[in-house]
Records
---
Amino acid sequence: MPVADNNSLAYIIIEAEEGSFRGAVLASDLRGIPVDFRYTEPIRPTKLEKVLYGNALEVYLKEELILESLIRAVEAKPALWICREQNLLAPLRFFTKSKAIMLMNSNHHPLDSAGDIESTGENGVYFVQADSVSAPLKITFQPNVAENEVKFVVNLLVNASQTMELTEPFSRMQKALRTIATEIQGDGK
């Protein structure tokens, strides 16, 4: 797949299931068309690793083994990295040295027009009306985010929302990971 331009979005997920961890990143243009996709094979920690790492095992697996390796593997250089887990936001920003947000759907009442922003009262957390008909999205930045970064991200998301549903790539990635797992199981039989 070709390298993305500065107007691409990179979605990243990390899942824990049945004692194993896996992740994926999908970079897309502002229409939702993939420009890069990477994933990790499932990682299942051994009993010894569980003992040695203790409570730090999940953080180590998610941040250093999966997140960092996915970020390094992506050839696209997106304008914005998007996750859906609060605990991935700080390491995502650290490893990418780029703009990163946590993005979620909300049940908040619609704001007046696309591009409108409303603070939730939490530092760095906003409701953003990305399009004119849907409920606003809940966007979380790192605390004390600069106002110009918020405006850049909102403009980027408003532009992208004209041709794509902004949270939909997360479900595509989950389906892709399930498809990969099914194909691997099928090859092993």
Note: The beta strands are 9-17, 20-28, 34-39, 80-83, 100-105, 117-119, 125-128, 137-140.
---
Amino acid sequence: MRKSVLVLLAVTMLVWVSGAFGGQIVMDGSTTVLPFGQAAAERFMNENNGVKFSVSGTGTGNGFKSLADGSAQIANASRFIKESEIKACMDKKVYPVPFAVALDCIVPIVHPSNPVKNLTKAQLKDIYSGKLTNWKEVGGADAPIVVVGRDTSSGTYGTWQEMIMDAGEKTRVTQRAQVTSSSGAMMTAVSQNKNAIGYEGMGYVGDSVKALSVEGVAASSAGARNGKYPLARYLYMFTNGWPEGELLAFMNFMLGREGQKIVNSTGFVSLQDVK
């Protein structure tokens, strides 16, 4: 996974901190990170009187905008920050610091009735570019493929573009694709259309859709950690500079045993195996 040369590698070590708690922490950004980010914030508030969180999921790109304009202290992201976003932050004297807080697998999803079980990265690219338009071309029924994607503010969209559409040479998504604005909307769109295909983080993938293998490898925690699953990625929280006070305490909590257990409980993958 490519990373910008302008920002340090994701910080994952824990830092001990003590001190009084007070004030509000605003968290905004990725809808992929939202489930465990919100759960961790609620647990942290319960254990630390006086700390308040405001949590929303408006998309990774919007999270970076909120960090840049100072309206959020934490930007949740399902991809690494772009150089243009770094510049936008630094122009406002905001210095984004990345914390890798979880791992994830982007999972191609179809309607449960679809007989297809596996697709290659090349087939996914051809489907999303519009080169393949019928399920029979990839071993399915004689039916049109309905492509469902995410809006451009989505970090999952950005990662899909990098891993699938930009693999080999940059290719545009077909103009016939349906565009969804959130993870929940993606799940609904695919679950209600027997000819649809979409993609989502594994924490969102439930029984209402069918998960496909990629290159013969099914999404799994082990596959995310060892890199054998072809569409594995890190999930991030970004702060403005090195965090202090209750914000630093929360990042320590997020990266600690309890925070990583929350990651697992929401269907995503902790950085290390925790019980």
Note: The radius of gyration is 19 Å.
---
Amino acid sequence: MEIRMLQQPELLPALHLVWEVYAETIAPNSSPEGVASFQKFIKYDYISQVWQRGELIFFGAYEEGTLCGILAIRPDGHIALFFVKKERQGQGIGHMLFDHAYHYCAQYLHADRMTVNAEPDAVERYIHMGMRPVSGEQVREGMRYVPMEMYVNLGMVSPKSRHSKAPWIALGVFGVVLVLLLMFIGVSAFRDFRREIGRQRDWIYDEPDYDYDDDYDYDYGFGSEEIPEEYSGGYEESEELSGIWVIPEMIDEDVSYELEEDVYEFLDDEKQSMMIQFRVAYPKLSGLADASVQKKVNDILKARAMESVKKIYDDPAPEIKERVLGEDYPILIDYVDYKVCYASEDVLSVVYEDYCYEGGQDYYAQHLRTCNISLKDGKVYEVKDIAELSDKFMDEWLVRMRREAGDDTFLAEADMNTLKKALEGDSQNGVYDVNFFLYTDGIEIGFDLNYASDDENNKGYVWVTAPFSFDEMKEYGAGSDLWKNLG
């Protein structure tokens, strides 16, 4: 059994599990008002928003790639959702989820107590895990519950985290052992690697020996639909920001155009034998003086965001077709978010985070994509356009890449000529996908990495980029009009 944090594309399957268990075990004894309130709470649009803001943290229990149970907890230690598949109840799965949540509260949230609004039939089960009622049964918006709590001994769990302040590195491991927050989370004892685009955290922990009473029939619990006001939006400006959101952007307020968000969404809810869902966000410009350039720019920005949808659905690659045919329950999910990290009158730099299931539960991928484009003519800049890839530059770039990775052997599998070709656009069979982006302090140049999971050179990095200030790049500039447009 693997217990790990869930990331965005896994929320929808988790909510399907929640509703399946709720509809079968709780809804028959609930009022219509209560059922409606619960349905409103677990809507994907709402849950995904509070998840992105860090206001709900989801743990999932997986066995051989199948989700068996979930627990969602707020930063104050309140259990908001807690469901185990009916056929898997009584097997200790709920205990494992609860135990992980308890240790997470102690070690990372520093919450001195856990609370839950327990469904009345689940009260005895929570008592079995150490919680106690704090009042009698209550009713809110038609939902019956008993408030319960337990104190968390913060001294029982010794910190095992180590924090890295190195920016702009995404760590990810595809498989059972290593996983990410916003990517994968592995199983058991927590160790925090924070080496990602701005300090995205990985918790990787070793499986403890559980000795639970498997005859105990644990099932479910659920909490209030409301998030306390003190948590609303409180994470966007905190140091816990992760991924592309920590990139310090430079947005010129005096530009003549406007930027807004556009979203491509698709959910195929007619197919019962597979899951297909896409939500792809990307920026859209309006107000450019040249309408033809504006259309060209917008088409490019959308196409860059839609690359995974094209690969897995619109024009599927042969390997995707094979996976879909070979899976009992195929999954095609793509979630893309973006950040405009540099916007001037003449240049736009956008980074995209892409989370994707490419055929099934075992085929999860995360990518960094970038788009750097001239707003004068719609030209897309590439690294070979903006840097002279001299021996001196390559040596300095590799030193910085290894410093960012915190590993002097990073990229040692490739000679300098191979790395140079990769920066010029030869991805070496897709392993090194070159990217760069502009931001407040300069430019970052590096790779979105796509090693095979069993490649001995796969160190778990999703992407790594090396920073250069604008002044430093003057020495290595390739005479591109990009630098002229930057002034």
Note: The first strand starts at residue 2 and ends at 5.
---
Amino acid sequence: MNFIIRWLVTAIAVGVAVWLVPGIVIIGGDSAWVAIAIFALFLSLIDISIKPILQLLSLPVSVLTLGLFYLVVNTLLLYIAAWLANGIFQAGFYIDGFGWAFLASIVISIVSALLNSLLAPERDR
């Protein structure tokens, strides 16, 4: 159940990023919500599996940059999720450049944090 909530929060955050960031285009034709759901699924799976390893490996650089390097790690994960979604299902994102992906990772991080704080049960607060 926790993964499904995480997936839905990520899908909403990705939808907001697509709406706000002009350098992110949805690939998938008329059913944009399907492309967003597929991309959010890959992003959620990558966040659970690969992200902790990358954060551990980038810990020295993150300490030097006061945690800002984690945004670069999130940007890399966006590229990986877009590559997987486009390669496997031909649905997902087209990212116009690193700057747009960086901005999208900031938007996704902020929206996800806000939604997770709203959806967290009282005992987790």
Note: The chain is about 75% helix and 5% strand.
